[in-house]
Amino acid sequence: MLRDTYDRPVKDLRISVTDRCNFRCTYCMPFDDYEWADKKEILTFEEIARLASLFVQLGVDKIRLTGGEPLLRRGLEKLIRKLSSLNGVKDLCLTTNGSLLAEKVYALQFAGLKRVNVSLDTLNPEKFARIRRRGNLAKVLEGLFAAKSYGLDPIKVNAVIERGVNDDDIVDLVEFSRKNGFTIRFIEYMDVGNSNNWTSEKLVSKKEILAIINARYPLREVGRDKGSAPSVDYEFIDGSGELGVIASVSEPFCSSCSRARLTADGKLATCLFSATGHDLKALLRNGATDEEIMEVISAIWRKRTDRYSDERLVAMNSARGYRAKDHKKIEMINLGG
Ligand code: SAM
Ligand code: SF4
Ligand code: SF4
């Protein structure tokens, strides 16, 4: 089996299907204007499906479609159909801001999508407008409930928590999710990309998030799914569901990271915080065979040494400290979260 220098296999493939987004979330992509990748540079569905099948042959059994906003990619259901019929894919998931979910969920589900993650950081419409800077809360909620009515399961709600912005929304989000049968996952605010002005003061740690929830709704730790998932899961002691916390900053999980990322323009990134990617599109478009492409991917993975979040934590705890701005990274909208 293919393993990197720390003996980590490649199990998950996150595919950004577009760098375009109809939101401008302050924590991800705060620019008003952005130079989107040229359409001809974006991988076609055929190219994505071919690469995905090669990754599956190398050990991937879980695929997530993301972006940018993946539902902006016209005909996404065609890609879902191709990927859901790949032998060896045990889990196919979509992460979306939810704004177009209500109108697209039927086609997505019909094409084979079984589950979805929807980003939602607050239930307050004004605050939603401040954080996400485009779109509106009502459409996202409509999308969530449409997904529920079409039987997608589980439906996970992703909430990025930023100090002084939405740390006072944690309990509301928990209650909303418990009431409606969604699994909420709180995500520590990270220094993704180059422009969200992250500082450690803006971080609300997993410990703090759990303390806030536990004071109202006592929790019991369940652990990480398969021992390696980013989220540490908890169940409510009263039996009414579960939640997760993704503590990439305060409790990094690089030692078990089996995630590869394919950018919208066809680059392989081996870490969410990579500065550059490896150009697989050039291989595809220059006529490389499947064997040649698999050999290139294998060579990249075998040399992989990424453990950015582990290193960040060491730096944060050192006298010198950690400055996000010192590290240039691929933008999150291109890389896929
Ligand atoms: N546009 C889709 C969405 O918002 O769900 C998919 C792409 S988005 C980049 C994927 C995930 O990354 C979302 O759940 C989003 O909340 C998360 N994310 C973006 N910026 C983040 C940050 N600075 N820290 C933690 N998570 C972040
Ligand atoms: Fe927000 Fe997702 Fe768009 Fe980033 S990609 S700006 S998280 S909606
Ligand atoms: Fe994986 Fe990089 Fe995140 Fe560590 S920082 S868990 S290596 S993506």
Describe it for me?
It is a single chain. The chain is α/β, with parallel strands linked by helices and 337 residues long. The protein has one domain: Aldolase class I (TIM Barrel, Alpha-Beta Barrel). Helices cover 32% and strands 18% of the residues. It has 11 helices and 12 strands. The chain has a 12-stranded mixed sheet with strand order 7-8-9-6-5-4-3-2-1-10-11-12. Helix 1 links the parallel strand 1 and strand 2. Helix 1 packs across helix 9 (290-302), helix 2 runs parallel beside helix 3 and helix 3 (101-110) packs parallel to helix 5 (137-149). The longest helix has 13 residues, at 45-57. It is globular, with a radius of gyration of 19 Å. The structure holds S-adenosylmethionine and iron/sulfur cluster (SF4) (2 copies). S-adenosylmethionine is lined by residues 21, 27-28, 66-67, 69, 95-97, 119, 158, 160, 187, 189-190, 192, 196, 332, 337.
